[in-house]
Design brief:
Elements lengths: L2 H9 L1 E5 L7 H11 L3 E5 L5 H11 L4 E5 L4 H10 L4 E2 L5 H9 L4 E2 L1 E2 L2 H9 L4 E4 L7 H9 L6 E4 L8 H5 L7 E3 L5 H5 L3 H16 L2 E8 L3 H15 L3 E3 L3 E4 L3 E4 L8 E7 L2 H10 L4 E8 L5 E6 L6 E7 L1
Parallel strand pairs: 1-2, 1-9, 2-3, 4-5, 6-7, 7-8, 10-13, 14-17
Antiparallel strand pairs: 10-14, 11-12, 12-13, 15-16, 16-17
């Protein structure tokens, strides 16, 4: 994936915007950034799109703002001039895609069939839009199409919402999702940017899906660890299970056989995607101990410890 698609992967959700009045662009961008989604696809479905992209790109350079519904070279030129960092089209028009490539803007063309995916591959692309997602068979169709195209990544858009978001993002060939449920036109027109910010934050929280996985308690040796686990077993029925370096009592209490990370122990927080969690928490100023990072075969994070302890406990992220 190119750098833009890699950034969109970490962000996870790209708000798809149809804006009628360019004056709403700045407060809308601010609401999205505050809510945790510094990205947007501003569609050329309205006359205000070009000006909106220009305002956002100039006032909020940290935001990855792209142009959507770009159907021809003239719109592509306008999108680039306005500052669009990527261009999205609803369908696959080969001449349009080639032109956008020629002007040096990353392009994510729409696809819905294997034939269109193969055309994208022929043009050197490894990221495409899948549109309209729900109407075209949803995640089941994407999984079926992705099977023979192992290096292709998809951005499903159309019918994606808070309830089915993680069905898509849970598949490793989906690099992000486009959605409009947090940026509905009536909310934008009514100036309800606080509500948009809250819905954006809610979408991010739903995507990350933080859960308590387990708490680890440091003990001095194996005998002490088993003694603590025995107490949880006898008093609360948390079945003891002895492992190599620790003893579990049930599924949420882990007693270490020797002092591990943290003055008192560690807390494991589950998340749907560790890469995205590290990105979004990092945007809030959270620091991580990069020496703790553990990766899977696809070079995605599996484990990441925060740099600071909470109440004497080291905190780390793991996959749900």
């Amino acid at each position: 994936m190119d750098k833009i698609c890699e950034e969109l992967y970490k962000i996870g959700i790209v708000p798809v915007i149809a804006i009628d009045d360019a004056k709403d662009a700045a407060p809308l961008a601010e609401a999205l950034i505050k809510g945790g989604l510094p990205a947007a696809e501003v569609t050329f479905r309205t006359a205000a799109a070009e000006d909106a992209i220009k305002i956002i790109s100039e006032k909020y350079p940290e935001m990855i703002v792209g142009a959507g519904t770009v159907l021809n070279a003239e719109q592509a030129d306008r999108a680039k001039a306005a500052g669009a960092k990527f261009i999205v089209s609803p369908g696959f028009n080969r001449s349009n895609v080639e032109y956008i490539q020629s002007i040096g803007v990353p392009v994510v063309p729409g696809t819905a069939t294997p034939g269109e995916v193969e055309q994208a591959i022929e043009l050197g692309l490894d990221c495409v839009k899948f549109f309209p997602a729900e109407q075209n068979g949803g995640i089941a169709k994407i999984k079926a199409m992705a099977a023979p195209y192992t290096k292709m990544h998809f951005m499903p858009t159309g019918g994606v919402n808070k309830n089915n978001l993680n069905d898509y993002l849970g598949f490793n060939k989906v690099f992000c999702c486009g959605g409009s449920w947090m940026v509905k036109k009536d909310l934008i027109s009514a100036g309800k940017f606080d509500e948009i910010e809250a819905m954006t934050r809610d979408a991010v929280n739903a995507m990350l899906g933080f859960t308590m996985k387990h708490i680890g308690i440091n003990e001095s040796d194996a005998a002490a660890a088993e003694s603590v686990a025995d107490k949880f077993d006898s008093l609360f029925g948390f079945t003891k299970k002895v492992g190599n370096s620790s003893v579990f009592a049930g599924s949420v209490i882990e007693v270490m056989k020797a002092k591990g990370r943290g003055a008192n122990g560690h807390i494991a927080i589950g998340t749907n995607n560790v890469d995205r969690a590290v990105y979004h928490l990092g945007k809030q100023g959270v620091k991580f101990d990069e020496s703790s990072f553990s990766y899977d075969a696809d070079n995605h994070l599996k484990v990441a410890y925060l740099a600071d302890e909470f109440g004497g406990f080291a905190v780390h992220l793991v996959r749900n």
